[in-house]
């Protein structure tokens, strides 16, 4: 199926038409800066601009950086607080005059990684996929099945959400070297390992591109590998999520 996948992030809104069978982009990736303040109306307007730039009409699916259940946004750690309780699927659908599906950004990126990336070899067993960017997003898979809307970036570490201590944004804010970041991330992984005991951790998001620079600091027993779909995972995964929703509707 061909569907427009969109990755809504704190700094950019990115999209492309995806062939969900192959996970390949059928158009070039278009990126528009996230508006500030990123209120629901402003983001909906930017999404429309993106869709118009691509010249697309058809169903759209978006990854969104918050907990989203039944089309409603429930958290707002790194986004404008006015998003809480917004029916984002309705808002976007009305703005575009198209069907729009929305799910958590890390969940959809994880779906792409499981289908087309490092997760292919881990369809059996327990996988924890973590995206390291402005926040820390998570997707948990058991035998390839997603446990939706986990928020492992918000487990407490040193008295605050772990993402405040070891996200890419925390690294930049505090001017940490990769080695220092790696030591912090190792503390975080140890905690998650102790609580959930996965078979493998897959790291995605911006910082995963620099995996080589901090991987030697990771001392957890669980194997840790870098994602391979990198910054396209959000777009590809959103499209795959959209396809699943459309197929369910046809049932
Ligand atoms: C949010 C998650 C999101 C992650 C990555 C966190 O702050 O709570 O829902 O997946 O950032 O964007």
Quick recap:
The chain is built from eight helices and 15 strands.
Descriptive report:
The protein has helices at 40-54, 88-96, 105-116, 162-166, 168-174, 178-196, 211-214, 233-250, and strands spanning 2-8, 12-19, 24-25, 30-33, 60-64, 68-69, 72-73, 100-104, 126-132, 136-142, 145-147, 156-157, 160-161, 200-204, 224-226. It is α/β, with parallel strands linked by helices and 251 residues long. The protein folds into two domains: 2-104, 2-Layer Sandwich (Nucleotidyltransferase, domain 5); 118-227, 2-Layer Sandwich (Nucleotidyltransferase, domain 5), CATH 3.30.420.40. Strands 1, 2, 3, 4, 5 and 8 form a six-stranded mixed beta sheet that branches. Strand 2 and strand 3 form a beta hairpin. Helix 1 crosses helix 2 (88-96) and helix 3 (105-116) crosses helix 8 (233-250). The structure holds beta-D-glucopyranose (BGC). The site of beta-D-glucopyranose (BGC) has 16 residues, from helix 3.
CATH T-level topology of the largest domain: Nucleotidyltransferase, domain 5
Low-confidence stretches: none
Task: Work out the number of β strands.
Answer: 15
The amount of helix comes to 25-40%
What is the C-level CATH assignment of the largest domain? Alpha Beta
Mass-distribution shape: globular
Major sheet attributes:
6 strands, mixed
Please write the string of helix (H) and strand (E) elements.
EEEEHEEEHEHEEEEEHHHEHEH
Compute the average pLDDT.
96
């Amino acid at each position: 199926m061909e569907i427009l996948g969109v990755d809504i992030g704190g700094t950019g809104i990115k999209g492309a038409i995806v062939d969900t069978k192959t996970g390949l982009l059928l158009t070039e990736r278009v990126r528009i800066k996230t508006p500030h303040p990123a209120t629901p109306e402003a983001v909906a307007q930017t999404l429309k601009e993106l869709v118009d730039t691509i010249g697309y009409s058809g169903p759209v699916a978006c990854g969104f950086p918050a907990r989203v259940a039944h089309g409603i946004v429930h958290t707002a750690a790194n986004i404008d607080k006015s998003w809480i309780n917004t029916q984002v699927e309705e808002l976007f659908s009305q703005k575009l005059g198209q069907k729009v599906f929305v799910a958590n950004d890390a969940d959809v990126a994880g779906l792409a990684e499981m289908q087309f990336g490092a997760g292919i070899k881990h369809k059996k067993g327990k996988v924890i996929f973590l995206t390291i960017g402005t926040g820390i997003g998570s997707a948990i898979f058991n035998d390839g099945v997603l446990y939706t809307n986990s928020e492992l970036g918000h487990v407490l570490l040193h008295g605050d959400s772990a993402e405040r201590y070891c996200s890419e944004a925390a690294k930049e804010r505090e001017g940490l070297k990769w080695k220092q970041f790696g030591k912090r991330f190792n503390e975080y992984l140890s905690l998650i390992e102790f609580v959930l005991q996965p078979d493998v951790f897959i790291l995605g998001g911006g910082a995963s591109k620099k995996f080589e620079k901090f991987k030697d600091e990771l001392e957890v027993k669980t194997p840790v590998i870098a994602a391979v779909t990198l910054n396209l995972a959000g777009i590809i995964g959103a499209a795959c999520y959209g396809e699943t929703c459309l197929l369910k509707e046809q049932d």
